[in-house]
Amino acid sequence: CSLVHAAAKNNDTRRLENLFERMSEANVEATRPMYNAFISTFARRGDRDGAEKWLKQMLNTGTAADVASYSAVIHACAKAGDLHHAEGWVCKMQELGIDPNVVTYNSV
Questions:
Q1: Cα–Cα dist 37/20, whole Å
Q2: Which residues are CB-contacts of 46 (< 8 A; sequence separation ≥ 6)?
Q3: Is the whole-model pTM more than 0.90?
Q4: E strands in 2-61
Q5: Taking a C-beta distance cutoff of 8 angstroms, is the pair 53, 73 a contact?
Q6: How far, in whole angstroms, is CA 57 from its chain's centroid?
Q7: Is the pLDDT score of 8 beyond 80?
């Protein structure tokens, strides 16, 4: 987990993806904090597609997303100038019973 957080802190998306691949090969499951680190790293870069990809990957593995997961994707959408997508994710999280917080709204 510390390797993931170090790569995330350095905004090294390529290293994160390599780490995830190695984890998968070793049958190590990513945790919610790890997925959130992936999503947030792509969000800081304004990479909406990358952030959404990791949120979807997270959900596909059965790992529950939280307000931080969705807020990071919403931040990525807003940073990319795609407010329509950002609003869609706010609606999606509310549909799932996850209440947006101040971080969520500040992202938009």
A1: 12
A2: 76, 79, 80
A3: no
A4: none
A5: no
A6: 9
A7: no
pLDDT tens digits for 58-87? Answer: 999 999 999 999 999 999 999 999 999 999
How many CA within 13 A on the CB side of residue 46?
6
- Count CB atoms within 10 A of the CB of residue 39: 28
Nearest to 89 by CA among 62, 71, 64: 71
Tokens of 31: 């945790």
What is the sign of the dihedral through the CA atoms of 77, 80, 85 and 90?
positive
Helix axes 48-60, 67-79, angle to 10 degrees: 160
